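hey can u check if this looks right to u? its 237 residues, i copy pasted from the old doc so theres a chance i mangled smth
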Amino acid sequence: MGVSERWYRSLEAGDSVSLSSEILGRLSQALVLGPDERMVLYSRALDGAGLALTDEQDAAEGQLALLHMVTAQTGFPAYLTDGCWNILGYNTLMSTWFPWVLEPGANLMRWALTEPGAREQMLDWRRHAEVYLAMLRFALATGGSRKASLDVLLQQVLEDPECRRLWAQGPKVVAFRQGHRYRLALPHVSPEQITVTSQVLLPAYQHGLRCVMLLPQKTVLPPCALIPEQQSGGPAE
């Protein structure tokens, strides 16, 4: 583990010792712990304040699977972000509705809070901005290794006077925007306003990643979404 004899003696004696995420990671490797065992270790050692990630290979394979799931969606916009809201992947509808995702280094939070186009497309932008800033505040408080990147993102956001004013209003925090409703003005997609509800999926063992799907208010489910009994009118074979 790369710890000193004094640290180990203190541990065996039941004295207080440093149990940073780095030390816990080395301990997990030394004991060849699986992801579920790591979660228990981190939860016990940090009083539930942190979770262990899978190793790099498993994480990469998991991310590829998530990208495939997102890009395979055809009925609604879908995208994948990391813990700093960097866009990792998106489907065709997402890039059609929001072409900014095609730009190198696209970041949802930066676009939503600083780009003039976001204020035109998201109706009632100020209310949305308050929630986005509360999410950013939550991420900064729990960001761990991502804090440096989140600090840079915050500075970029606070260069905007309106965002700076909203940020100074109070310490509100929001973890996720599950089930939030948006009214969108996207004339290149529809002459009428589009209302969508965001569904946020948090993949197991992929701490920090978010799969987000924007479900339109008026949606017709494809026939394949029905269970066999509904399709045939009789019991499933």
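The beta strands are 78-81, 87-90, 181-184, 194-201, 210-216.
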